[in-house]
Please model this.
Amino acid sequence: MKKKVLSVVVLATVLSGCGSSSSDSATVTPVVEPVVEPVVEPVVTPVVENASVCFNETLYKEGTEYITAYKQGDKTSRKQKSAALENTSFRGQMATQIQVMSEDSLAMEFNYFSVDNNEKSYSFLGSNVNTTQIYYEPGLLSRFNLDKGESYEQTYTSISNSPYGREESVYNTHVTFAGIEIITVPAGTYAACKFDIKTNQDGSTSNSTFTTWTGTGSGITIQIAVDEKVTEQLVEAEINGTKI
Model:
């Protein structure tokens, strides 16, 4: 009978998780709840498209040469070779001089730009073609320091002097950077900055609408549309001997 009672005591001791103790009550171990760290969601900063990726300052550095050809309707234009020459003065203002020569043509054109690499912009001051000079007051501005949806306006006067006389017209333009698009033209598929341009002449109430696509990285015009109809597409281009 004593053996049976002893067995029951040992079994109860094992099930209670207690060893033999001189204490009359069992020690209770407190349950520690695990600390759950809060989940911190990463902050995602939206990527804003900026047209500065389509400004290529190399095009305006002395010694740079680039070749382009465009499809106009069913015809491909002659290749044009452009070369950045040393800076010179154009109508009293220092300017980057770009010489343009068309394939199989003796005519040469000289274009003049005021370039601001820091602001990612340039102003087209004018050009000399044979005996005709065309210039803009102020220079025709092209800005690339724009986020998607941003725009700018400009009013300028276009003046032409030739042996046939002098002509002037006043233009107002509104330019919007519409974002970066992937477009395919005969030269290939490119990412390009899309600019929507509205312009009117001499105070006209009707606007002409132009759209240009400028290649990211290269700064080369990839496509042009007038009133939503594509008029020019790049067929081939290279900068300093490298195809884009």
